[in-house]
């Protein structure tokens, strides 16, 4: 392998790929990044055997090749180069020489043939909007379980619903659902994508419409369309390949309340402000906040800590019916943070039934939250 590349481009590629590497690996190759030339680019890959991140960077490639180099040492060395072009060429059997402006480093390497192979994912499933995917994942990741004893709940579910792509996540206490509206074929497989992969993807996806890659769709590829075990998200400059979590995701549609007796619509920022005030006391106990809807167009937020004190705040709201219900304040706060609209709606029937939270004016997203049982 022989090429020239800008130091900042190589550093950025290595920094992104390293995030996929396990902190502790039983394999010596597990601490390495794979550098290889592909179609006039340098591709840098890191993996923990479950998730792989590959980053493509423009380079002047003189000779094709591959190299396997310790990631930590390579990153530290690259940190000594500033705004310059680096020449990379072989050194010894598996090593590399990096040089620029009279400075040279020689790095020992390993046989690239010993690097864990990244699974092939030849089957193209869909092209999806990167900004929409980012927003969907940001809304759902708080709902993912951190309990490894139920692996299926540590994933975000991707599935076809009524001809479009739906994403969902649940920890057993709350359920977040995003109906994206993106058309997919009826044959689109049901897939459970690890939360770790989704978080890395969230970090790589463009944040705003003016970002360089915002207009390029994210391509979804799998190893087999019928029962896939591997999924690849192909962005313009990066690829994230992951093992899917095997198992059947809960049939969550039946859990979403279809009818309600009481509805309250309230300003998102105002509710969050009072909710966080209530949390000062609620967090001293079981994190319980009590919501009283009506009578009249009012919503009351209350919290009680037996040995500390009480809190109550009333705010204007648009109310249909009357009701009382209690929730874990942190779950409601997570929803409010992700809502993205000026107002939200809570629908409920009884204090012991699931509550449905919706952003007003955005019917693509909902959270169903289990109530807390209290003495009223």
Automatic annotation (TrEMBL):
Organism: marine sediment metagenome
Pfam families per UniProt: DNA_pol3_beta, DNA_pol3_beta_2, DNA_pol3_beta_3
Alphabetically ordered keywords of this record: Cytoplasm, DNA replication, DNA-binding, DNA-directed DNA polymerase, Nucleotidyltransferase, Transferase
Residue ranges of domain DNA polymerase III beta sliding clamp central in the record: 133-251
Lineage of the organism: unclassified sequences, metagenomes, ecological metagenomes
UniProt entry tagged with the keyword Disulfide bond: no
Descriptive protein name: DNA polymerase III beta sliding clamp central domain-containing protein
Classification via InterPro entries: DNA_clamp_sf (IPR046938), DNA_polIII_beta (IPR001001), DNA_polIII_beta_C (IPR022635), DNA_polIII_beta_cen (IPR022637), DNA_polIII_beta_N (IPR022634)
Principal location listed in the UniProt entry: cytoplasm
GO terms (BP aspect): DNA strand elongation involved in DNA replication
Cell compartment(s), UniProt: Cytoplasm
Any one GO molecular function term: 3'-5' exonuclease activity
């Amino acid at each position: 392998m022989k090429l020239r590349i800008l130091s900042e481009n190589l550093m950025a590629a290595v920094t992104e790929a390293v995030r996929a590497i396990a902190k502790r690996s039983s394999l010596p190759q597990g601490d390495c990044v794979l550098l290889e030339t592909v179609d006039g680019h340098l591709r840098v890959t890191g993996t923990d055997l479950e998730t792989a991140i590959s980053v493509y960077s423009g380079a002047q490639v003189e000779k094709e090749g591959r190299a396997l180099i310790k990631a930590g040492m390579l990153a530290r060395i690259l940190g000594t180069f500033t705004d310059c072009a680096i020449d990379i060429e072989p050194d010894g059997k598996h090593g590399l020489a990096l040089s620029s402006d009279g400075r040279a480093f020689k790095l020992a390497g390993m046989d690239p043939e010993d690097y864990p192979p990244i699974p092939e994912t030849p089957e193209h499933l869909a092209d999806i909007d990167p900004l929409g995917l980012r927003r969907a994942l940001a809304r759902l990741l708080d709902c993912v379980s951190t309990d490894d004893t139920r692996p299926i709940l540590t994933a975000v579910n991707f599935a076809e619903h009524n001809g479009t792509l739906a994403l969902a996540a649940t920890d057993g206490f709350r359920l977040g659902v995003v109906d994206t509206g993106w058309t997919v074929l009826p044959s689109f497989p049901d897939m459970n994508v690890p939360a770790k992969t989704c978080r890395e993807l969230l970090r790589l996806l463009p944040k705003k419409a003016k970002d360089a890659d915002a207009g390029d769709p994210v391509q979804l590829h799998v190893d087999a369309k019928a029962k896939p075990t591997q999924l690849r998200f192909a962005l313009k400059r990066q690829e994230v390949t992951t093992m899917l979590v095997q198992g059947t995701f809960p049939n969550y549609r039946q859990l979403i309340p279809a009818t309600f007796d009481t509805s309250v619509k309230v300003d998102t920022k105002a509710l969050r402000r009072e909710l966080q005030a209530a949390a000062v006391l609620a967090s001293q106990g079981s994190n319980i906040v009590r919501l009283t809807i009506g009578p009249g167009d009012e919503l009351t937020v209350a919290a009680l800590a037996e040995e500390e004190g009480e809190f109550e705040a009333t705010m204007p709201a648009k109310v249909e019916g009357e009701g009382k219900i209690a929730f874990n304040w942190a779950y409601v706060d997570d929803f409010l943070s992700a809502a993205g609209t000026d107002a939200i709606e809570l629908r409920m029937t009884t204090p012991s039934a699931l509550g449905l939270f919706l952003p007003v004016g955005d019917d693509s997203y909902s959270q169903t939250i289990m109530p807390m049982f209290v003495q009223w």
